Amino acid sequence: MKKGITIATTIIVIGLLWYFFIKPQDYQVRVLAKSFPGTINQSLKAWNNTLPNATIQQLNDLNHLEQKITFGDSTNIYIWEITSITDSTSKLKVDIKDVDHSFFNKLYVPFTDTDFEKRSRKTVTEFMESLNQHLKEIKITFEGIEELPSTYCACVEHTTIQSNKAFAMMKSYPFLNSVIINNEIQMNGIPFIETTEWNMQTDSISFNFCYPIIRTDSLPTIKDVVFKEFIGKKSLKATYNGNYMTSDRAWYSLLDYAKAENISVEQTPIEYFFNNPNMGGDALRWKAEIFLPIKDTDE
Q1: Over the range 18-44, which residues count as b (16 or more CB within 10 Å of their CB) and which as e?
Q2: Does domain 140-293 bear CATH number 3.30.360.10?
Q3: 128-179 pLDDT, tens per residue?
Q4: What is the C-alpha to C-alpha distance for residues 151 and 37, in angstroms, rounded to an integer?
Q5: Strand pairing of 204-212 and 226-230?
């Protein structure tokens, strides 16, 4: 009898010690999102940038992020874990901890709906509202596999972060237009970007913004313009409708498809643009064709 009481007491003490001093979160929120991890990852980072006292960092991969938000005298840590359920649905688990009041939160959370719990739910809800609004503003359609043609082109090189890609394009549009017009160069297609590097941990990219042109023997030498041959490859293709600032959502969609179908791809997306973002208008009417090159089987 005494032995049983001792064992039970030990289990309870260990449990309490774990609960109050080791358990990483004070509270947990779980929600379902009608999107895939890449879009949720980028949307979470964009939403964080709208908050007055918040920082966010990606942890080991796209599916794990740590966010710190200051509310008055409290710093709350949100650990976001994104799990793909289907090709269009993900589960979000959010572990939340108040760095300065963790013990008291754990003490009161089981017995009452604390302000900390209400604020935690409200914060997650606000993100979900932001995400759902974003999903209404974009459309991604998988088109299959297509062989991209090669072309000669005039390009401007850029290194930036994904969210600034469209701004870099907008800056280069009038510059390349003037180069084409002033040097009587003949266009041979619509503008596109050729990604040369993509660091998904830091969201940094390097890319060439290019105009396809007819190659001649009298092309000028112009500062910041590179004339080069673009080599087309067999690629996964998607059509994206929406603001070009967020066309990278299609990149993640194609990556998810490649993973699901066990297709080896190069993480160097190519985008063809059918609209000039400088002209404005309803972004859902903007169209881009997004390609993810498939690796050669002998690579």
Answers
A1: eeeeeeebbbebeeebebbbbbbbbbb
A2: no
A3: 999 999 999 999 999 999 999 999 999 999 999 999 998 998 889 899 999 9
A4: 34
A5: unpaired
